[in-house]
From TrEMBL:
It catalyses: Cleavage of a beta-linked Asp residue from the N-terminus of a polypeptide. It comes from the Eukaryota. The gene is LOC108855445. One of its GO terms (molecular function) is beta-aspartyl-peptidase activity. InterPro entries: Ntn_hydrolases_N (IPR029055), Peptidase_T2 (IPR000246). This is beta-aspartyl-peptidase. It comes from Raphanus sativus (Radish). The active site is at T218. Substrate binds at R246, V247, G248, D249, T269, G270, D271, G272. Heterotetramer of two alpha and two beta chains arranged as a dimer of alpha/beta heterodimers. CDD domains: Glycosylasparaginase (cd04513). Its EC number is 3.4.19.5.
Length: 353
């Protein structure tokens, strides 16, 4: 018997219903925003952007930029982490996991918008990383506000106290200062002799505890947009009392952040001088490519560093292309923040060392 048109339409719909439901469930995984630390307003800003249809790259920029404007923990954006000369400098990076393009700025002066400057490098130059005054000049020439003083009353006070404390602690090692705050002369002595010097002559062998539970230093964020594309970004004003010219892990692709659409992404925070030697985020993404789950990949990357530098302090957060995430840390308790379609608001996850 010939079937009526309505019954054909109904059976066709029934046939495709599981498929449609599957697609819908798939769509609900995204977008996803993951960020180091409880930088909740930054995650909300990225979420608003990506939920309204922004690309992963643009949402990462919105999120990190919000953190810069809020000066998250005083360690992102202007007005924090004075260097030995009392000046704040910025490190930032953005990476597009679709094209593998990267834009980054390092030790950038006079411009407060680190992550926007990084995006300008990515979108409007064939370079990957610009440093120092060249980075500032480029950012200003492309329309960002500047030049401006990046100091704040807090950063100036912190620096004055440090000067009064004979510039201790600092990042120098194996040196003798002519005066309390330098100039410094290199010395080549055994550790025992150096320790004596340290006490008696103010020699700076001491290594500054770079970050503590109340001075989280870097926002490193990953966003998967509605299309399932992933981007990552980082912004920091680095290490307090660093030697002028120091570039941390923040603008180093594979170290502070890394993304590949085929696999997932990663963000890192902690002692960048150590961590950048291991490219932990590259390691995380490549481990996930080989089949590791985010948790195992994150733990593996951190333990590779800890084996060589047991005293290092740091953490990574990994997210795979399906939005599964996990963190791992060493030397401190780490927190990271997430927003995804199954959450009403940002959720903070705590990871123990
Ligand atoms: N990684 C940053 C730096 O070394 C600091 C941090 O994330 O804690 O510049």
């Amino acid at each position: 018997m010939a079937r009526s048109y309505p019954s054909i339409i109904l059976s066709t719909l029934l046939l495709f219903l599981p498929l449609l439901t599957g697609v819908e469930a798939e769509a609900k995984k995204f977008p996803v925003v993951v960020s180091t630390w409880p930088f909740i307003e930054a995650v909300r800003a990225a979420w608003r952007a990506v939920d309204n249809g922004s690309s992963a790259v643009d949402a990462v920029v919105e999120g990190c930029s919000a953190c810069e404007q809020l000066r998250c923990d005083g360690t992102v954006g202007p007005g924090g982490s004075p260097n030995e000369k009392g000046e704040t400098m910025l490190d930032a990076l953005v990476m597009d996991g679709v094209t593998m393009e990267v834009g980054a700025v390092a030790a950038m002066r006079y411009v407060k918008d680190g992550i926007r400057a990084a995006r300008l490098v990515m979108k409007h130059s064939q370079h990957t990383l610009l440093a120092g005054e060249g980075a500032s000049a480029f950012a200003i020439s492309m329309g960002l506000p500047g030049p401006m003083n990046l100091s704040s009353p807090e950063s100036v006070n912190k620096w004055s106290d440090w000067k009064e404390n004979r510039c201790q602690p600092n990042f120098r090692k194996n040196v003798v200062p002519a005066n309390d705050c330098g100039p410094y002369k290199p010395i080549d002595v055994s550790r025992e002799v150096l320790t004596e010097y340290s006490c008696e002559m103010g020699t700076a062998e001491y290594r500054l505890p770079l970050v503590g539970p109340h001075s989280h230093d870097t926002i490193s964020m990953a966003v998967i947009d509605k299309m399932g594309h992933i981007a990552v970004g980082t912004s920091t004003n680095g290490a307090t009392f660093k030697i002028p010219g120091r570039v941390g892990d923040g603008p180093i692709a594979g170290s502070s952040a890394y993304a590949d659409d085929e696999v997932g992404g990663c963000g890192a925070t902690g002692d960048g001088d150590i961590m950048m030697r291991f490219l932990p985020c590259y390691q995380v993404v490549e481990s996930m490519r080989q089949g590791m789950k985010p948790e195992k990949a994150a733990k593996d990357a951190v333990s590779r560093i800890a084996r060589k530098f047991p005293d290092f302090v740091g953490a990574v957060v990994a997210v795979d292309k399906n939005g599964s995430h996990a963190g791992a840390c060493h030397g401190w308790t780490f927190q990271y923040s997430v927003q995804s379609p199954d959450m009403d608001d940002v959720q903070v996850f705590t990871v123990l060392p």
